[in-house]
């Protein structure tokens, strides 16, 4: 038995991450390219600023190579973020694979990975100002362990109908883009601190974010984004149990800013390409392989034209 799997002084050694990013791998973010994108904020040109009212949702487009910042103009507030490929919404953010490849809590230079059969980084975190780390309870901020609140579990647990859950807010937000409730998926819970108890039970803590805190990412492909200002606000009021209360007074708006970067700062950056798997799961459909290769080239050309 190897030393890695052996007992050391009666206890197991600390386990190593299953997936590790190394230079040259898609998991690894080249700091020489992405560092200036994060740090040279004086070179950014603001294209659009949006304020999302409390307990509501909003959807917007972000071009490949643009930077999107979500901030807190009035104070702590949890925000639920979903991402789709703007041109093919079947490709969308995959929170499960993302937390495997990076962490259960997102931070600087982690990447948002898309679902199968695409599997590519569709956005990369450039910065986040909370910098919470991992606390004594094993909890972290910007949560991928959980998912959005929804009216179904609310009705199940309370017997009440409530139309301002994040799932509902996101559903209303994406309807103008031809999407429906069935397209809303597991998301990133920005500014939310969560963890697992010793027996594996999910817990959340009040958001440590402050007025002016932000979370920002660069779009690796053309994106449709949707966000919900969570109706539970900053999570300082318990949602369930004997101490449950009305969190309405802890709810605040969100601000969204979309920035364009000059071409000289984007040197070395290029839109992400789908995973190069063409095995067709052992099935013999060569025409499908040829079609996928053609679609990949068309998508790359479309993204290049959108930057022009």
Strand order of the largest sheet: 1-12-3-10-6-5
Terminal CA distance reads 57 Å
Largest beta-sheet characterization: 6 strands, antiparallel
Helices and strands, in order, run as: HEEEEHEEEHHEEEEEH
Rg estimate, integer Å:
20 Å
Average predicted local confidence, pLDDT: 91
Per DSSP E runs of 2 or more residues, the count of β-strands stands at 12
Shape, principal axes of CA atoms: globular
Uncertain stretches: 1-9
What is the percent of helical residues? Answer: 10-25%
What does this structure look like?
The structure is a single chain. By secondary structure, the protein is an alpha+beta fold. The chain has one domain. It has five helices and twelve strands. The N and C termini lie far apart (57 Å). Residues 1-9 have low confidence and may be disordered.
What is this structure's SSE topology?
Blueprint: H1 31-39, E1 45-52, E2 57-62, E3 67-71, E4 79-85, H2 95-101, E5 111-113, E6 121-128, E7 140-143, H3 151-158, H4 166-174, E8 188-196, E9 202-205, E10 214-219, E11 223-229, E12 254-260, H5 286-307
Antiparallel strand pairs: 1-12, 2-11, 3-10, 3-12, 4-8, 4-11, 5-6, 6-10, 7-8, 8-9
